[in-house]
Amino acid sequence: MTSFSEVKVKIPFGDKHLDGMISLPIKTFTYGVILTHGAGGDMNFSHLVSVASYLASHGILCLRFTCKGLNLVYRVKAYNAVLEYISSSKDYPLDGVFLGGRSMGARAASSVVQQSCQNIYDGFIQGLLCLSYPLHPPKQKNKLRSEELLLIKHPVLFVSGSADEMCEKSLLEDAIGRMQGPTEVHWIEGASHGMEVKGRKAEDVLSEINAQVLSWIEKLVRPMKN
Questions:
Q1: SS3 label, residue 96
Q2: How do strand 16-25 and strand 61-65 relate by DSSP bridges?
Q3: Domains within the chain, CATH numbers bracketed
Q4: Which of 104, 165, 170, 223 could form a disulfide with 39 if both were Cys (CB 3.0 to 4.6 A apart)?
Q5: What is the DSSP letter of 189?
Q6: How far apart are CA 136 and CA 146, in angstroms?
Q7: Residues 140, 165 contacting (CB under 8 angstroms)
Q8: How far apart are CA 158 and CA 176, in angstroms?
Q9: Cβ contacts of 52 within 8 Å, gap of 6 or more
């Protein structure tokens, strides 16, 4: 028996709509996660579907959405529209939400979290989940995208491959050491930016990612429920 259902939603964004999918736990839920994809693909990217399904099966609502385009400012605006949608929803009332994404989607999520300290969503946002965060362009380790990360005060979890060509391990660990909020990193040994690991099945890698994400979220929300 399936422990969650899926609901397609249209999220208002200016004069158009964003396509979204809510993975809805059958049992009572109080917290949610928003996820979006990288520069390519869409909300049906296998990593996002896997994380969303796993979280929903463990009682955490998950909303993933599609936003095409390579303009980061545009992606951030779209993410804010999704945050407004879920925070004001009467159909899916939540006590708090974790913002996340993969690759460029993680950059958009981090921008929204960083900006939240200056708006009404500060208390609603519980943390930031970064899957394959693109710390720098390929082979351009001198062009770091860490400045915004250093301003974030919310809890952060990075899940990255130790062989990610867009996230040198030592550079991310250095950035984490300078971040203001409680920050963790889980390295997938030998994984590339796309989380491919030679000699391991994709399902096995995704299972490792899912378990780590759930553990981190549960560790943060458990004190809030007590």
A1: strand
A2: antiparallel
A3: 4-225 (3.40.50.1820)
A4: 104
A5: T
A6: 9
A7: no
A8: 9
A9: 21, 23, 33, 35, 62, 64
**Which residue reads 């378990």 in tokens?**
211
**Total residue count of the chain as it appears in this document:** 226
- The C-alpha angle 72, 75, 77, rounded to 5 degrees, equals 110
- The amino acid present at 58, given as its one-letter code, is H
The token duo for 43 is 């909300």
Outline where DSSP puts E strands in the chain. Answer: 4-13, 16-25, 31-36, 61-65, 96-102, 125-131, 156-161, 183-188
81-115 pLDDT, tens digit each: 999 999 999 999 999 999 999 999 999 999 999 99
Chain position carrying tokens 């939603």 = 9
